[in-house]
Amino acid sequence: MGTHPYLVLAATLALMAILAGISIVDFRRLVIPDWLNLALASIGLGSQMATRPADVPAQILFAAATLAAVWLVRRGHFVMTGRIGLGLGDVKMLAAAACWISPLLLPVLLFIASATALLFIGGQVVTAGPAAARSRVPFGPFIATGLGCTWALEQFSGLNMGLV
Predict the structure, then answer these.
(1) What b/e sequence results for 108-122 when a residue is b if at least 16 CB atoms lie within 10 Å of its CB, and e otherwise?
(2) 137 is in which domain, residue-wise?
(3) Distance between CA atoms of 133 and 126, rounded to whole angstroms?
(4) Dihedral sign from CA coordinates of 106, 69, 49, 45
(5) Contact indicator for 94, 66 with CB cutoff of 8 Å
(6) pLDDT number for residue 160
(7) Residue 90 falls within a domain, yes or no?
(8) How far apart are CA 53 and CA 100, in angstroms?
């Protein structure tokens, strides 16, 4: 997104505001509202349109593929265990996050989100005991952490990978 620094700044501020909202709501209610996921996706696509309009169709396809793949993981977990391990809000949030980053960085986002979630749960187990490992944990804040870090990595460290 190196075309205009003010576009990067505006997109980053909007991203951080939406991610903060998602994190707060998900921690409090264990739900990610659809309107926040829609805002995340639309502002992400808007920033792509402003900077790399030729890449927008591929970015939309990537977001749709991400939605399908994560939904299949959710469904597969349910079929194998009989329990829902990943909420639909998390599935939609990962698809919306795909509107912001290069497809090559999705594994980085997922690694950061998973690692921070595991560290959080480990901290809960240490402080509250083993029963804390069985409690419901919102994944949205950790997806937010992964997206924020991945966005910063792509935009501000010169690792703008595009859709290659």
Answers:
(1) bbbebbeebbeeebe
(2) 5-156
(3) 10
(4) negative
(5) yes
(6) 59
(7) yes
(8) 13
**Residues whose CB is less than 8 angstroms from the CB of residue 163 and which lie 6 or more positions away in sequence, other chains included:** 55, 58, 59, 62, 102, 103
**Could you give the 3-state DSSP secondary structure of residue 69?**
helix
Which pLDDT score, from 0 to 100, does residue 1 have? 40
Number of domains observed in the structure of the chain:
1
Q: What is the pTM of this model?
A: 0.92
3-state secondary structure 72-97: HHHHHHHHHHCCCCCCHHHHHHHHHH
Give me the residues of the chain with pLDDT under 70, please: 1-3, 158-164
Does residue 164 sit within a domain?
no
pLDDT for 152: 93
Task: Report the C-alpha gap between 31 and 34 in whole angstroms.
Answer: 9
Query: Domain for residue 33, yes or no?
Result: yes
| Residue 92, token pair as written in the block | 């939609």
- 67-87 pLDDT per residue, tens: 999 999 999 999 999 999 999
Can you give the pLDDT at residue 164?
A: 39
Residue 23 lies in a domain: yes
Q: For position 158, what pLDDT does the model report?
A: 67
